[in-house]
Write a structure and sequence with these properties.
Blueprint lengths: L2 H31 L4 H33 L5 E8 L6 E9 L2 E7 L2 H8 L4 E7 L3 E12 L5 E12 L4 E10 L4 E9 L2
Helix pairs in contact: 1-2
């Protein structure tokens, strides 16, 4: 994002905050000043409420603009998690590293794991990466076969170009090996 865009967003946020503060102060003053004239007071209160709504709307629009500038869709990298039946692995936690930097960490409750078993997919990470080569590493911890603690990792090299990338961390049961298998699948956009 350019410095000019950041400057515009910051000034707009300061302006929106100043308007909201002024409206709040005016609302407090208007109720004391115009207490005798309830009709006039109601009119000012309505105007202030309308102004507050406009400021909140402006703030929402600025947040959306900021996200679009910081994370353009064509340069995003998204990482999702899915699970198979889960007969050989009871998920407890997942950590995702990109280039040895922790970008996502999640501890799972019984209800979340159940949702994943029923076909749910969870987004773990959404962000931008510079073009070039990167390394995505996922660490899975939980209870494995025979009720023992189980920690495994899966890794994939990312050749980031200008378009977005989507990866799925898959936990599947291998009936041949009688243990879980951890894979990282790249989806085509």
């Amino acid at each position: 994002m350019s410095a000019a865009s950041v400057s515009v967003i910051n000034r707009s946020r300061q302006f929106a905050s100043a308007i909201l503060l002024g409206a709040s102060l005016l609302l407090g003053t208007s109720s004391a000043t115009f207490a005798q004239d309830s009709e006039n007071s109601q009119s000012v209160s309505d105007q202030i409420e309308d102004l507050k709504k406009q400021v909140l709307s402006l703030n929402r629009d600025l947040l959306i603009l900021e996200e679009e500038l910081l994370y353009p869709a064509n340069s995003q990298v998204a990482v999702y998690l899915s699970m198979d039946v889960g007969e050989f692995f009871e998920l407890d936690a997942v950590k995702v590293h990109i280039d040895d930097k922790l970008v996502a960490s999640e501890l799972y409750t019984e209800h979340q794991v159940d949702a994943l078993f029923r076909g749910g997919v969870q987004r773990l990470y959404l962000g931008n990466l510079k073009t070039g080569d990167h390394r995505l590493t996922a660490f899975f911890t939980g209870i494995g076969p025979q009720g023992r603690e189980y920690k495994r990792a899966a890794e994939v090299s990312i050749n980031k170009e200008t378009e977005g990338k989507v990866y799925e961390l898959k936990i599947v049961d291998s009936t041949v090996k009688l243990q879980p298998v951890f894979e990282i699948k790249e989806w085509q956009l």
